[in-house]
Amino acid sequence: DILGMSFMMLLLMTISILFPYMLNDPENFIPANPMVTPVHIQPEWYFLFAYAILRSIPNKLGGVIALMMSILMLFSQPILNKNNIQSNKFYPMNKMLLWYFFMNIILLTWIGAQPV
């Protein structure tokens, strides 16, 4: 494991030292024009699901409430589950809901990356 990690770190360091611009976003090389708004403005990939939720609702307050409700749903799950059995083996519905959650996040991320 140490040999593999050392090789990967050496490879990443070599790429970042010899070719520093290889891993950058190509949008960063376009000269800035203060008179024109850039066409391709979108958040980083890990915020795209939230961006899709905000973009789907035209009302600003409604979008913020929908985003907060989507986050609060995750925090409400441990409170709502009051069963004594701790293993997921006894709850087959949980496995289906987990995969539904992952597919939902992937779909929202893809939708957030699409142009308006």
UniProtKB/TrEMBL annotation:
<protein>
    <recommendedName>
        <fullName>Cytochrome b</fullName>
    </recommendedName>
</protein>
<keyword id="KW-0249">Electron transport</keyword>
<dbReference type="GO" id="GO:0046872">
    <property type="term" value="F:metal ion binding"/>
</dbReference>
<dbReference type="GO" id="GO:0006122">
    <property type="term" value="P:mitochondrial electron transport, ubiquinol to cytochrome c"/>
</dbReference>
<keyword id="KW-0408">Iron</keyword>
<dbReference type="InterPro" id="IPR005798">
    <property type="entry name" value="Cyt_b/b6_C"/>
</dbReference>
<keyword id="KW-0472">Membrane</keyword>
<dbReference type="GO" id="GO:0005743">
    <property type="term" value="C:mitochondrial inner membrane"/>
</dbReference>
<keyword id="KW-0679">Respiratory chain</keyword>
<dbReference type="GO" id="GO:0008121">
    <property type="term" value="F:quinol-cytochrome-c reductase activity"/>
</dbReference>
<comment type="function">
    <text>Component of the ubiquinol-cytochrome c reductase complex (complex III or cytochrome b-c1 complex) that is part of the mitochondrial respiratory chain. The b-c1 complex mediates electron transfer from ubiquinol to cytochrome c. Contributes to the generation of a proton gradient across the mitochondrial membrane that is then used for ATP synthesis.</text>
</comment>
<dbReference type="GO" id="GO:0016491">
    <property type="term" value="F:oxidoreductase activity"/>
</dbReference>
<feature type="transmembrane region" description="Helical">
    <location>
        <begin position="96"/>
        <end position="113"/>
    </location>
</feature>
<keyword id="KW-1133">Transmembrane helix</keyword>
<feature type="domain" description="Cytochrome b/b6 C-terminal region profile">
    <location>
        <begin position="1"/>
        <end position="116"/>
    </location>
</feature>
<keyword id="KW-0349">Heme</keyword>
<keyword id="KW-0813">Transport</keyword>
<keyword id="KW-0479">Metal-binding</keyword>
<feature type="transmembrane region" description="Helical">
    <location>
        <begin position="7"/>
        <end position="23"/>
    </location>
</feature>
<dbReference type="InterPro" id="IPR027387">
    <property type="entry name" value="Cytb/b6-like_sf"/>
</dbReference>
<keyword id="KW-0830">Ubiquinone</keyword>
<keyword id="KW-0812">Transmembrane</keyword>
<dbReference type="Pfam" id="PF00032">
    <property type="entry name" value="Cytochrom_B_C"/>
</dbReference>
<feature type="transmembrane region" description="Helical">
    <location>
        <begin position="45"/>
        <end position="75"/>
    </location>
</feature>
<keyword id="KW-0999">Mitochondrion inner membrane</keyword>
<comment type="subunit">
    <text>The main subunits of complex b-c1 are: cytochrome b, cytochrome c1 and the Rieske protein.</text>
</comment>
<keyword id="KW-0496">Mitochondrion</keyword>
<dbReference type="InterPro" id="IPR036150">
    <property type="entry name" value="Cyt_b/b6_C_sf"/>
</dbReference>
